[in-house]
Amino acid sequence: MNKFWAYLKTKQFRNTIILAAGSVLVVILVVFFSLGFYTRHGTGIPVPQLKGMQIERAMSTLKDQGFDYKIDSVYVLDKPPGSVVEQDPDSGTYVKENRTIYLTVVTREAPLVALPDLEPLTYREAAATLANYGLKIGDTTFKADIANHVLDVRFAGQSIKAGTKLPKGSKIDLVIGNGAGPSEVDIPDLVNQDLSAAKFIIKNNSLTLGTITYQGTIPDSTNLVVVQQSPMKTDSVNKTSLGTRINLTVTQGTKTDESH
């Protein structure tokens, strides 16, 4: 054992270790530089920028620079059909000649999607639902209706029902109830009504009491009858906007058998 430890301290042992380490280092360097030469490490052709190009131009560019290519397609909203949206490897990457470049291109034909049922939904709910289906809101029309949800769905000017197949990305027109009911009401016939009854009818029809004009002597203000109103119902005009002011002319007396 003492001879072994003595041998480890000799110059011969140190030379042997140095020679072995040097041999290993030489082998590693030879392998490294050989692989670098074999794979053209640090050399090659940079991949061109292809994103945003139309596929025809991208294919021509790759062919001119000696690349092969493979193409996959995907539908993307708001991207021009036929444009490259992804490439692998990325632009600027150095690769060998004849390397295959993988391209993802926006398909020219949008896939069909089924129109969801929108009629029970509010405008906000309908907008979110259409976005989830890849559809867009076009024109929106608000219609006088007590409901405040979708009343009608239209595409290209025609009413359509839930389940109708449409190209993804299509614009859908909506008719929405404004929740306020009709914007116009019938003009009530107030002539020959007691003033108190006329006031009740005006309020009940979402109209506004305007000016009251008193005609003749009024000894008893509790017994007044409407003899004239403005606006009044005619053969050509029988509706007015909500909130319209109705002006009345009243007189003392009792109701007549016929209205004026």
| Overall average pLDDT | 84
Which sequence of strands runs across the widest sheet?
7-11-8-9
Number of helices, where a helix is a run of at least 4 consecutive DSSP H or I residues:
5
How many strands?
Answer: 16
- Main sheet: strands, sense, barrel: 4 strands, mixed
How many angstroms does the end-to-end distance come to? 140 Å
What fraction of residues sit in β-strands?
25-35%
Question: What order do the helices and strands follow?
Answer: HHEHEEEEEHEEEEEEHEEEE
Poorly predicted residue ranges: none
Q: What structural class results from the helix and strand content?
A: alpha+beta
Portion of residues in helices?
25-40%
Outline, from the CA principal axes? Answer: rod-shaped
Radius of gyration: 44 Å
Task: Summarize this entry quickly.
The protein is an alpha+beta fold and 260 residues long.
Descriptive notes:
- Helices cover 25% and strands 31% of the residues.
- The protein has helices at 2-8, 11-38, 55-64, 123-132, 195-204; strands at 45-46, 68-74, 84-88, 94-95, 100-106, 112-114, 136-143, 150-155, 158-159, 165-167, 171-177, 184-186, 208-215, 224-230, 239-241, 245-252.
- A 4-stranded mixed β-sheet has the order 7-11-8-9, with helices on one face.
- A hairpin with a 2-residue loop joins strand 8 and strand 9.
- The longest helix is centred in the first third of the chain and has 28 residues, at 11-38.
Question: Which helices and strands appear, and what pairs or packs with what?
Answer:
Blueprint: H1 2-8, H2 11-38, E1 45-46, H3 55-64, E2 68-74, E3 84-88, E4 94-95, E5 100-106, E6 112-114, H4 123-132, E7 136-143, E8 150-155, E9 158-159, E10 165-167, E11 171-177, E12 184-186, H5 195-204, E13 208-215, E14 224-230, E15 239-241, E16 245-252
Parallel strand pairs: 2-5, 7-11, 13-16
Antiparallel strand pairs: 1-4, 3-5, 6-10, 8-9, 8-11, 12-15, 14-16
